[in-house]
Amino acid sequence: MIRLASAITAVLILSAAPAVARTPFQDTMNSIDASVSLTDRIGELIPILKGEGNYNAYFSAAFREQVPKAKLDALMKQVEAAIGTPVSIEKITPATPFAATLRVGFTKGVATMRIAVDPNTPHRVTGLLITGTEPRGDTLSQLEASFKTLPGQSGYAIYALSDGAPKLLAGMKPELSAPLGSSFKLWVLAAAAQQVADGTRHWSDILPLVHTNLPGGTLSSWPDGAPLTLQSLTTFMLSQSDNSATDTLIGALGPDKVDAMVSATGVAQPDRTLPVLTTAQAFALKDPANAEILAAWQSATSPDARRAVLAQHKAALAKPVRESVFSGKPVAVDSVEWFASPADEAKVLDWLRRNAGDTALTLMAVNPGTNADIAGKFAYIGYKGGSEPGVIAMNYLVRRKDGRWFAVTGNWHRDDAGVKTESFASLMNRALALTAKID
What we know:
Blueprint: H1 36-43, H2 45-49, H3 55-58, H4 61-66, H5 69-83, E1 86-96, E2 99-106, E3 109-117, E4 125-135, H6 140-148, E5 153-161, E6 167-172, E7 178-179, H7 185-198, E8 206-208, E9 227-229, H8 230-239, H9 243-253, H10 255-264, H11 270-273, H12 279-286, H13 291-299, H14 303-312, H15 314-317, E10 339-340, H16 342-355, H17 358-364, H18 372-375, E11 378-388, E12 391-400, E13 405-413, H19 421-435
Helix pairs in contact: 6-19, 7-8, 7-9, 7-10, 7-16, 8-9, 8-17, 9-10, 13-14
Signal peptide: 1-21
Domain Beta-lactamase class A catalytic: 161-269
Pfam families: Beta-lactamase2 (PF13354)
């Protein structure tokens, strides 16, 4: 339900940071030149990563406050355990004259990083973010071996998309249904796109924002009833995983219409996930104050029985949700969630490719869910993922520069502890990199 981490200035972590948005049917050339101050700092990075440079002179005071040298050294030990020691800067892709994405070579692999420097003298580094790592000469068998090391349950799949059904090229447990987090919002997108295609709605339709007292998202602080277009709400839902936008859309499109898209997009076991909960309902069911309602929900054995629980307790489930519901520990991830397998998600992505139209695909590409280096391998990359404590899922619809389409989808969940976003994102970045060159 909560969205994946964005770029964090002055903090160095492993993260699934979103990259620059790309249009779906056009490749873009990077025409931005890096400033001398940026290239100078990049030239000094390798010794810093090795722990040999002048840490205080290299990083800004704000960065050093949040990331003391000991913290950087500890992180680099983790990175070096996976891909060896840093050797050289292999590629620089400027985002602005003072910020860039880097491909950093290590003895046994490659790390993708984002760096930002202060435009003002002495141009200290204000942000450094590791967005992914991959072993040198990565293979599908190595990727699967890495997935198998994740505690709990996980799965992934790479599907080729063409005129027929999605064709499985590689994967692990592709048919195993799993919790999706905010990936369910692809069904909401499908419902919106279907209604636009039918002529019953237009992307320019104005809808009033409906507040459900949800934490997270830009729109949570906007006034109730604020007018937004269908396209704007959908953009917030996809790019920021905004929960207020999502629930407004479900209400406007019709919960029954969203439910219908679960089967229409090809989910093999729709009854497991129906009815499609709003984010407010999911938050409320996980609230300890509603333990009796949760028990009733968990004992319901059919979609109609679960709908009856929601109807019976509508007032209680509409009360403001406490942010402390998500305290870092998994809560009912096997019952209060949205469920589909990697194979199901590939079918959803293929349905969107075939039926959603250019506008919907453009909205999916606002947040590609990967770093600029990976995104640059494709002509188009659309994304929706999701996470909550104990759950993470990432789903990509990509078109390679040779024109071939693919779905790359994966999930990981456990009910005994949280999952590590950075570890999973790194695996999915590796899956994307392999998809870029798969036969």
